[in-house]
Amino acid sequence: MTDAYERMMRANQANWDARTTVHLASRFYGVEEEPDPSRWFAPWEWDDLGEVAGRDVLHLQCHLGTETIAFAQRGARTVGLDFSAASVTAATGIAARAGLDVTYVRANVYDAVRALGGRRFDVVYTGKGALCYLPDLDRWAGVVAELLRPGGHLYLVEFHPLLNSLGPKPTPGAGPELLLRHDYLGGNGPVHRDATHTYTDGPAVEGATDSYEWMHGLDEVVNALVEAGLDIRRLRESPELPWPRWPHMTRAASGWWRLPAPRIPLLYGLLARRS
Questions:
Q1: Rounded CA separation 156/82 (Å)
Q2: Cα–Cα distance measured from residue 269 to residue 246, given in angstroms and rounded to the nearest whole number
Q3: Continuous segment of H or E residues that includes residue 22
Q4: For the whole model, what pTM was predicted?
Q5: Which of 1, 71, 131, 166 has an alpha carbon 20 to 30 Å from 262's alpha carbon atom?
Q6: Going along the chain, which residue ranges are E strands?
């Protein structure tokens, strides 16, 4: 990874440290309420994951751990990893208040193998706004492969590149129209964003507001995992999101939100296995 990319990832780390205070106080996360991590999961995720009780589960790029604790609730030996020290501190407190045994580790995802002491896992879970902060998916896929035991599974549930192209949050003055605003495919380098306001409610972020994101098409994700020696077992595309990105979205039976029309993918789930 180039020095420039390392500098951008350090800027992202500082931004996520600064975001944490805003996110902890937001209604979007609602961490002061009784934790309900199930609301962050589509029902089909648990169908694909199967039974996790008694298994070793690692959640990469876990932020506040609002999803991480769901695995502990289901009886998994659970570890969360994030590069933001503020996020790891917050996640540790959230798990403790919920009475759940979760280990959190602060590390860049590319350093996860060393940071975890070579420990291997039955399941590596990640996504929902994680991959866009990684410049090198080939390297990421190699790390995932090292973290998995033989026969272990990666489960990636990520915002669809089409959603990223439409914009995962409204731009100032934007109407309800579905307009392609950003690249679907990667290859044009990072996108520099002003992250003074994040995707949650709440006040402006104070301090570090530079953010860098990288676009990754589905082909880039799949090919990186195949090259790392993982077998793709399932790929889902879903028209639902856990929050109403557009004001005319309607509540689905799952409790998540979908567009009345057109029916387009907004999220995808990918299950891969280490041979």
A1: 16
A2: 21
A3: helix 3-24
A4: 0.95
A5: 131
A6: 56-60, 77-82, 102-106, 121-127, 148-159, 191-194, 210-213, 230-238, 240-241, 250-251, 257-258, 267-274
